[in-house]
Amino acid sequence: MIREKLNLSRATGEPTAFYPPVEPYNTGRLRVSDLHELYYEEVGNPNGKPAVLLHGGPGAGLIPLYRQAFDPEKYRVVLFDQRGCGRSTPRGELRDNTTWDIVADIEKLREHLGIDRWLVFGGSWGGTLALAYAQTHPGSVTEMVLRGIWLIRQAEMDFELGHGANWVFPEEWEQFESHIPEEERGDLVEAYFKRLSSEDEEVRRAAGQAWGIWESCKISLLPNPSMIEDHADEYADVLSLMECHFMRNKGWLRSDTQLLDDVHKIRHIPTVMVFGRYDLITPVKTGWDLKKVWPEAELIIIPDEGHAFNEPGIAEALVTATDYFV
């Protein structure tokens, strides 16, 4: 299907698959609770095939490049900042902010915009949400395009926080771990959350930057020092706090394997899953585990890429998939 259209042996280079930049033809705000209001935008063709993009994080928010993963002449693409993120308000708010609150928001947004069914596109944490949403509202989903999916399993969190990725980046890991006193290192998520939610701005910022540097060094196949520095500032704001919030609550899932156990609800939905072979944030084993319980889904492993949305091979696979489904 999608694999046959890709050149999986090409050298890493600049992403060329994305469509040209496009501006929204509609923006708006949707009140989803007494506390939260979402920012959303629509791009492409108002009469095109509906799709919704779920950004990563948790806490990252939208970037303009996300709009370019779809043919603007053929798709009506809805993008929104999740609770507490980006231009949604109140920014950084953790109250009433769970996986299932956001799943409900996606369905409210679909109904608000008068869309019957739509393609769901999500990467990383956005892939988590895509699975949770489709398993809750399978009748609302036509297809899914997923990248580097996170299932919020304990083994995945262990890999990222001291039992795997630290063997690849030992220097950065030591900086990350040393930010926390030795007696608190038994639960780094809780230790970081305490600092990220501190009333002391300097304590919050220092913890956010430490968290951000550790996250950012693993995003792309070849670490980019300037990107890591930029992301450290991003994480020092609300992104690291939001990530800790969802990790310490294990996504409010009923079990460690809920998203795997409930795949039977969505096996009929045409789905493409894209992973980078050297993804150290959402390892390819997650895609492999999904494929074993979901043989109908197409798993594409890009041999020379990491985690990032805009790595050339990943971008090519994602755009090829959206082109195919339209």
pLDDT < 50 stretches: none
What is the distance, rounded to the nearest whole angstrom, between the alpha carbons of the first and last residues?
Answer: 14 Å
Q: Indicate the CATH topology of the largest domain.
A: Rossmann fold
Strand fraction band?
15-25%
**Global Rg:** 19 Å
- The total of helices stands at 10
Note the overall shape. globular
The total of beta strands comes to 8
* Estimated structural class: alpha/beta
Architecture of the largest domain, according to CATH? 3-Layer(aba) Sandwich
| Element-level helix/strand string | EEEEHEHEHHHHHHEHEH
Report the mean per-residue pLDDT as an integer.
93
CATH class category name of the largest domain: Alpha Beta
CATH H-level superfamily title of the largest domain: Alpha/Beta hydrolase fold, catalytic domain
Number of domains: 2
Order of strands, main sheet, comes to 1-2-4-3-5-6-7-8
Q: The biggest beta sheet, please?
A: 8 strands, mixed
Helix content: 25-40%
List keywords for this structure.
single chain; Rossmann fold; 326 residues; alpha/beta; 10 helices
How would you summarize this macromolecular structure in one to three sentences?
The protein is an alpha/beta fold.
How would you portray this structure in words?
This protein has 326 residues and is α/β, with parallel strands linked by helices. The protein has ten helices and eight strands. It has helices spanning 99-112, 125-136, 154-160, 170-178, 188-196, 201-216, 225-248, 258-261, 284-293, 312-325; strands at residues 26-31, 37-44, 49-54, 75-80, 118-123, 141-147, 271-276, 298-302. A hairpin with a 5-residue loop joins strand 1 (26-31) and strand 2 (37-44). Helix 1 packs across helix 2 (125-136) and helix 6 crosses helix 7 (225-248). The longest helix has 24 residues, at 225-248. The protein is globular, with a radius of gyration of 19 Å.
